Amino acid sequence: MGVTTYTQEFTTSVVPNRMFRALILDSHNLIPKLLPQSIKSIEYVEGDGSVGSIKQTNLHEGSHMKCLKHKIDLLDVENYECKYTLIEGDALGGAGKLESLSYEVKFEAIDGGSKVTSTSYYYAKGDIELTEEEMAGGKDKAMGMFKVVEEYLIANPDVYA
Protein backbone atom coordinates (compact mmCIF):
# COMPACT_ATOMS: atom_id res chain seq x y z
CA MET A 1 0.00 0.00 0.00
CA GLY A 2 1.50 3.31 -1.10
CA VAL A 3 1.05 6.54 0.82
CA THR A 4 0.78 9.93 -0.83
CA THR A 5 1.09 12.91 1.49
CA TYR A 6 -0.11 16.40 0.70
CA THR A 7 0.33 19.44 2.96
CA GLN A 8 -1.40 22.81 2.64
CA GLU A 9 -0.63 25.87 4.74
CA PHE A 10 -2.23 29.24 5.01
CA THR A 11 -2.11 32.16 7.38
CA THR A 12 -4.99 34.13 8.78
CA SER A 13 -5.51 37.11 11.05
CA VAL A 14 -7.82 34.94 13.20
CA VAL A 15 -6.18 33.57 16.38
CA PRO A 16 -5.71 29.77 16.72
CA ASN A 17 -8.26 29.33 19.52
CA ARG A 18 -11.09 30.74 17.39
CA MET A 19 -10.11 28.82 14.25
CA PHE A 20 -9.79 25.55 16.21
CA ARG A 21 -13.12 25.99 17.95
CA ALA A 22 -14.92 26.86 14.70
CA LEU A 23 -13.32 24.28 12.39
CA ILE A 24 -12.81 21.40 14.82
CA LEU A 25 -14.77 21.59 18.08
CA ASP A 26 -17.99 23.14 16.77
CA SER A 27 -17.82 22.28 13.08
CA HIS A 28 -20.91 20.08 13.36
CA ASN A 29 -22.94 23.20 14.17
CA LEU A 30 -21.14 25.91 12.19
CA ILE A 31 -20.23 24.32 8.85
CA PRO A 32 -23.80 23.37 7.77
CA LYS A 33 -24.85 26.97 8.51
CA LEU A 34 -22.01 28.44 6.45
CA LEU A 35 -22.19 25.92 3.58
CA PRO A 36 -25.90 24.98 3.36
CA GLN A 37 -25.68 24.50 -0.41
CA SER A 38 -23.22 21.62 0.09
CA ILE A 39 -23.65 20.19 3.57
CA LYS A 40 -27.03 19.10 4.88
CA SER A 41 -25.86 18.19 8.39
CA ILE A 42 -22.97 16.98 10.51
CA GLU A 43 -23.66 14.78 13.50
CA TYR A 44 -21.89 12.51 15.93
CA VAL A 45 -23.08 8.96 15.33
CA GLU A 46 -20.79 7.63 18.07
CA GLY A 47 -19.31 9.47 21.01
CA ASP A 48 -19.40 13.07 22.12
CA GLY A 49 -16.67 14.65 20.01
CA SER A 50 -13.76 13.26 22.00
CA VAL A 51 -11.11 10.83 20.72
CA GLY A 52 -12.76 7.74 19.23
CA SER A 53 -15.95 9.59 18.29
CA ILE A 54 -17.37 9.16 14.80
CA LYS A 55 -18.73 12.17 12.97
CA GLN A 56 -20.96 11.80 9.90
CA THR A 57 -21.22 14.55 7.29
CA ASN A 58 -24.40 14.32 5.22
CA LEU A 59 -24.22 15.98 1.83
CA HIS A 60 -27.13 17.26 -0.23
CA GLU A 61 -28.86 15.19 -2.87
CA GLY A 62 -27.24 15.77 -6.22
CA SER A 63 -23.76 15.74 -4.73
CA HIS A 64 -21.40 13.11 -6.12
CA MET A 65 -21.15 11.76 -2.53
CA LYS A 66 -23.91 11.05 0.00
CA CYS A 67 -22.03 11.03 3.28
CA LEU A 68 -18.63 10.80 4.92
CA LYS A 69 -17.76 9.28 8.28
CA HIS A 70 -14.65 10.38 10.15
CA LYS A 71 -13.17 8.91 13.31
CA ILE A 72 -11.35 11.31 15.64
CA ASP A 73 -7.90 9.88 16.34
CA LEU A 74 -6.36 12.79 18.27
CA LEU A 75 -7.89 15.91 19.76
CA ASP A 76 -5.35 18.15 21.50
CA VAL A 77 -7.29 21.21 22.68
CA GLU A 78 -4.22 22.70 24.42
CA ASN A 79 -2.07 22.67 21.27
CA TYR A 80 -4.86 23.16 18.72
CA GLU A 81 -4.25 19.92 16.87
CA CYS A 82 -6.60 17.28 15.50
CA LYS A 83 -6.11 14.02 13.61
CA TYR A 84 -8.95 12.08 12.05
CA THR A 85 -9.50 9.28 9.55
CA LEU A 86 -12.14 8.88 6.87
CA ILE A 87 -13.57 5.46 7.72
CA GLU A 88 -16.57 5.35 5.40
CA GLY A 89 -17.81 7.24 2.39
CA ASP A 90 -17.83 7.54 -1.36
CA ALA A 91 -14.46 9.33 -1.32
CA LEU A 92 -12.81 6.02 -0.38
CA GLY A 93 -14.50 3.61 -2.72
CA GLY A 94 -15.57 5.83 -5.58
CA ALA A 95 -12.51 5.26 -7.72
CA GLY A 96 -11.58 2.03 -5.96
CA LYS A 97 -8.11 3.34 -5.32
CA LEU A 98 -8.04 4.21 -1.61
CA GLU A 99 -7.73 2.00 1.46
CA SER A 100 -8.03 4.98 3.78
CA LEU A 101 -7.55 8.71 4.06
CA SER A 102 -6.22 10.43 7.18
CA TYR A 103 -5.84 14.08 8.09
CA GLU A 104 -3.85 16.19 10.54
CA VAL A 105 -4.81 19.80 11.17
CA LYS A 106 -2.68 22.15 13.31
CA PHE A 107 -3.30 25.76 14.26
CA GLU A 108 -0.21 27.69 15.39
CA ALA A 109 -0.01 31.22 16.77
CA ILE A 110 1.93 33.70 14.66
CA ASP A 111 2.16 37.47 14.87
CA GLY A 112 -1.32 38.81 14.26
CA GLY A 113 -3.11 35.49 13.86
CA SER A 114 -2.52 31.84 12.97
CA LYS A 115 -0.78 29.51 10.62
CA VAL A 116 -3.01 26.58 9.66
CA THR A 117 -1.31 23.41 8.44
CA SER A 118 -3.44 20.63 6.98
CA THR A 119 -1.78 17.36 5.97
CA SER A 120 -3.65 14.61 4.13
CA TYR A 121 -2.40 11.02 3.92
CA TYR A 122 -3.83 9.06 1.00
CA TYR A 123 -3.33 5.30 1.49
CA ALA A 124 -3.72 3.70 -1.93
CA LYS A 125 -4.74 0.10 -2.54
CA GLY A 126 -1.85 -2.11 -3.65
CA ASP A 127 0.62 -0.42 -5.99
CA ILE A 128 -1.84 2.17 -7.27
CA GLU A 129 -0.38 5.67 -7.66
CA LEU A 130 -2.65 8.65 -7.16
CA THR A 131 -2.37 11.62 -9.47
CA GLU A 132 -2.41 15.25 -8.44
CA GLU A 133 -5.74 15.66 -10.26
CA GLU A 134 -7.33 12.86 -8.24
CA MET A 135 -6.44 14.62 -4.99
CA ALA A 136 -7.16 18.17 -6.18
CA GLY A 137 -10.94 18.14 -5.66
CA GLY A 138 -10.78 17.26 -1.99
CA LYS A 139 -7.92 19.65 -1.32
CA ASP A 140 -9.72 22.53 -3.03
CA LYS A 141 -12.92 21.85 -1.07
CA ALA A 142 -11.04 21.75 2.24
CA MET A 143 -9.27 25.03 1.49
CA GLY A 144 -12.57 26.59 0.43
CA MET A 145 -14.15 25.56 3.74
CA PHE A 146 -11.21 27.02 5.70
CA LYS A 147 -11.59 30.31 3.83
CA VAL A 148 -15.37 30.50 4.40
CA VAL A 149 -14.86 29.96 8.14
CA GLU A 150 -12.04 32.51 8.22
CA GLU A 151 -14.22 35.14 6.51
CA TYR A 152 -17.08 34.42 8.92
CA LEU A 153 -14.83 34.79 11.97
CA ILE A 154 -13.31 38.04 10.68
CA ALA A 155 -16.80 39.45 10.02
CA ASN A 156 -17.99 38.27 13.47
CA PRO A 157 -15.14 39.00 15.90
CA ASP A 158 -17.14 38.03 19.01
CA VAL A 159 -17.96 34.51 17.78
CA TYR A 160 -15.78 31.87 19.53
CA ALA A 161 -13.91 34.69 21.31
UniProtKB/TrEMBL annotation:
InterPro entries: Bet_v_I/MLP (IPR000916), Bet_v_I_allergen (IPR024949), Plant_def-hormone_signal (IPR050279), START-like_dom_sf (IPR023393). Residues 1-155 form the Bet v I/Major latex protein domain. It holds the Pfam family Bet_v_1. GO terms for biological process: abscisic acid-activated signaling pathway; defense response. GO terms for cellular component: cytoplasm; nucleus. SUPFAM superfamilies: Bet v1-like. One of its GO terms (molecular function) is abscisic acid binding. It comes from the Eukaryota. Belongs to the BetVI family. This is Bet v I/Major latex protein domain-containing protein.
